[in-house]
Amino acid sequence: MVRLDEQNREQYAKLILDALETENKEQFRDNFLELHPTDQVEIFVSVEIEKRVRIYRYLFPKEFAEIFGGLEIKRQKEIFQELDETYSSNVFNHMSADDVAYFLVELKDEKAQEILQKMNKEEAVSVKELLSYPPETAGAIMTKEFVSLSSTDRSSNVIEQLRESGPEAETIYYLYVVDELDKLVGVVSLRDLIIAPPDKRIENIMSTRVVSVPDDMDQEEVAMLIKDYDFLAVPVISKQQHLLGIITFDDVIDIIEEETTEDLGEISAAKGATDVNVSSFTAAKKRAPWIILLMFFGLITAEIIGQFEETLEQIVLLAAFIPLIMDSAGNTGTQSLAVAVRGLALGTIHKKSIGKMIRREFGTGVMLGLICMIMLAAIITILYQGNWMIAVIVGVTIFLTLSIATVIGSTVPLIINKLKLDPAIASGPFITTVNDILGLLIYFTIATSLLEFL
């Protein structure tokens, strides 16, 4: 099995497509099955339905299972409709239980139950177990294909066992040791097993300091744990310490991508609409609630400007700096929001470090405010013929606004996180609108109080 570079991939793709075109089954299988699964998926999704039907005929369900598992969930649903019922059932029988469970979650309950009934009983039981856990928990994303050992086994016997059961396991780099009650008691790395004397018992090779996760742990916390420890896999245990399954690093990569996409959607107020493949109607439906809410916040901004109508009538020049103040406040607040959300997502913000982080952001806002105040005061004085009072008003407003905007941007996610909600929902547009309102209040309050000097 090889992973091809761009030039070789094109050559192989041409050979495979020619074999499909001429219905040369043997040539297709020889070339296609030699490819890395990623390249197989890429070629598979590039062909039209007529050629896909031939691929179903040319490949055994076990061979197609890896391709189906590598597809995005939306494409899986489409391909599933093309498959014969018996063929699809056999495909699911050869897929990892966690991949099947993930697919079934996206289907209607009746269809999912129908698929489970047609699968092998043993495979269906594993999938049902995963489906019984709450979504986005360790239990829901773990795989049941792993190797467990007894502490009384000898290394030579285990290596022989791996030759038989290893190909079906998700990973064999870590082997988990259980006692007679199926409780996790240790872990053996493949390296330690290989270099151990053949007659040495597993209990004398294994490490008893096993890092594990409970089946109800949030998937994001699991991902952070595997990242922190640089594990290839982590065992999942029940409250009674029974070994239930394992979570591998490739699952963690998917989790991180999923959580990052979700956070990006929250921060940009476009949750559920970041996928370029969704329709315009779906994207509009997902974005509409936030846009409408922010529109009402915009009415507050308009009301504030209306309240200071007399000030604007007397000094029309003040209106020219409204966009500058609003943009600066929003941008600075969004930067602090990103710092806070990232810190919470990575687990680097703790109770003891919250005050330090807020003080740092406030200090950053003060320094940015001072720099912008000095630059604006000088530029406005020059451009507007020595109108130093306008320069003072705009400069002081920028200084106060940026100083406070950084505090708001960093504290709002912390408050939302304290309420057990996703801190990313303190989205950029929301923070921007709040800081716009704050900036205008400061601006017009200062301008009105100094009106007699203008």
TrEMBL record:
<feature type="transmembrane region" description="Helical">
    <location>
        <begin position="314"/>
        <end position="341"/>
    </location>
</feature>
<dbReference type="InterPro" id="IPR006668">
    <property type="entry name" value="Mg_transptr_MgtE_intracell_dom"/>
</dbReference>
<dbReference type="Pfam" id="PF03448">
    <property type="entry name" value="MgtE_N"/>
</dbReference>
<comment type="similarity">
    <text>Belongs to the SLC41A transporter family.</text>
</comment>
<comment type="subunit">
    <text>Homodimer.</text>
</comment>
<dbReference type="Pfam" id="PF00571">
    <property type="entry name" value="CBS"/>
</dbReference>
<dbReference type="InterPro" id="IPR036739">
    <property type="entry name" value="SLC41_membr_dom_sf"/>
</dbReference>
<feature type="domain" description="CBS">
    <location>
        <begin position="206"/>
        <end position="262"/>
    </location>
</feature>
<keyword id="KW-1003">Cell membrane</keyword>
<dbReference type="InterPro" id="IPR006667">
    <property type="entry name" value="SLC41_membr_dom"/>
</dbReference>
<keyword id="KW-0472">Membrane</keyword>
<keyword id="KW-0479">Metal-binding</keyword>
<dbReference type="InterPro" id="IPR006669">
    <property type="entry name" value="MgtE_transporter"/>
</dbReference>
<feature type="domain" description="CBS">
    <location>
        <begin position="142"/>
        <end position="203"/>
    </location>
</feature>
<keyword id="KW-0813">Transport</keyword>
<dbReference type="InterPro" id="IPR046342">
    <property type="entry name" value="CBS_dom_sf"/>
</dbReference>
<keyword id="KW-1133">Transmembrane helix</keyword>
<feature type="transmembrane region" description="Helical">
    <location>
        <begin position="390"/>
        <end position="416"/>
    </location>
</feature>
<dbReference type="InterPro" id="IPR038076">
    <property type="entry name" value="MgtE_N_sf"/>
</dbReference>
<feature type="transmembrane region" description="Helical">
    <location>
        <begin position="362"/>
        <end position="384"/>
    </location>
</feature>
<feature type="transmembrane region" description="Helical">
    <location>
        <begin position="290"/>
        <end position="308"/>
    </location>
</feature>
<comment type="function">
    <text>Acts as a magnesium transporter.</text>
</comment>
<keyword id="KW-0812">Transmembrane</keyword>
<dbReference type="Pfam" id="PF01769">
    <property type="entry name" value="MgtE"/>
</dbReference>
<keyword id="KW-0460">Magnesium</keyword>
<keyword id="KW-0129">CBS domain</keyword>
<feature type="transmembrane region" description="Helical">
    <location>
        <begin position="428"/>
        <end position="451"/>
    </location>
</feature>
<dbReference type="InterPro" id="IPR000644">
    <property type="entry name" value="CBS_dom"/>
</dbReference>
<protein>
    <recommendedName>
        <fullName>Magnesium transporter MgtE</fullName>
    </recommendedName>
</protein>
